[in-house]
Amino acid sequence: MRSRFRRLAAMAAVATISITSLAACSSQSAGGEEPLVGLIIKTQDNPFYVKMAEGAKAEAAEQGFTLQSATGEGQSDVDSQIKSIENFIARGAKAILVTPAGDGIIPALKKARDAGIMVIALDSPLGDPTAADGTFATDNVQAGVLVGEWAKEALGDTAPRIATLDLSTDQIPVDVQRNQGFLQGFGIDVADDGKMWDEKDPRLVGHEVTDANEAGGRQGMEKLLQKDPTINLVYTINEPTAAGAYQAITAAGKQDQITVVSVDGGCPGVKNVQGGVIDATSMQFPLKMAEQAVQAVSAWLEDGTTPENSPGLDFTNTGVTLITDQAQAGVESEDVDWGLESCWG
To answer: What Å distances lie between residue 214 and 71, 197, 199, 223, 318, CA to CA?
Structure first.
């Protein structure tokens, strides 16, 4: 009997706590004390997006917002992003911040804007600029150009045998922009700068897709070396991909033969530059990206102000810096010490 009484008492206590919590949530929503801001990132297996979420959360607390995050299951998981957008619309969010997995989310974003919700794209501009009120992103073309220019100078008179480790076959804007920027920086004629892999330059010997993660980088590099063991320069979509590629390179005993360049500038990536895993990388600033986006939401809620694009671009450029300890003439860069102090700031 005593045991049964204790169980009943515990159940009553839990019920009381649940009712109290629901009442508190209902009261907060009704009072409108903290506007709801939704953040939709591509995936949690990439530290870039984790850092972005940290920055957004901190700035939202500073601005007095309730920030809630949603994540997909991969870099090109459009379906999950559409569901998250619809969920935030239904919950009365005041703003939605999203790292686009693809232009397939545009109709859902337009639906959000029609409902009076501010929409901000992060990290990569959408194919239709009217789908968002603003975009805060790295100039991904310039990020690619920087590592391409550096690689050209670093190889010098060595005949290049170039391979690329890209994101996916979906021609996602950020993937295309970095790839095409790298090729342009190296001096390769791109047939269509809005499309990857249509170049005819014989210096390009292969490409693989990786889903922008370490396992994909390793597997992609293994395939590339099987196809052409003479590769001496590899561009990678991001630093986790580069780390995986280096595992395959060292397993093949070619670490002294192959130069690796990348994009991201995260603290683990900069440490890999320091350790010789990556020779040069273009640093982005996701914390700044997220902070400025949340500040833009605050300004919009206050008086309807929308973000201004950077000169000559259709987005607000949050900056990019080349990091390497092998400086090359004519290519502006910072060293690893600077990179470790500034990574993803």
So the answer is: 19, 22, 26, 14, 26
Query: What CA–CA distances, in Å, run from 318 to 5, 9, 137?
Result: 61, 56, 6
Q: What amino acid is encoded at 232 in this protein?
A: N
pLDDT tens digit at each of 345 positions of the chain: 333 333 333 333 333 323 222 222 322 333 457 999 999 999 888 788 888 999 999 999 999 999 999 998 887 899 999 999 999 999 999 999 999 998 999 999 999 999 999 999 998 888 898 999 999 999 999 999 999 999 999 999 999 999 999 999 989 888 999 999 999 999 999 999 999 999 999 999 999 999 999 999 999 999 999 999 999 999 999 999 999 999 999 999 999 999 999 999 999 999 999 999 999 999 999 999 999 999 999 999 999 999 999 999 989 999 999 999 999 999 999 999 999 999 977
- For residues 103 and 128, give the distance between their C-alpha atoms in angstroms, rounded to a whole number: 8
Residue 102: φ, ψ to 5°: 165, 165
Cβ 238 vs Cβ 223: under 8 Å? no
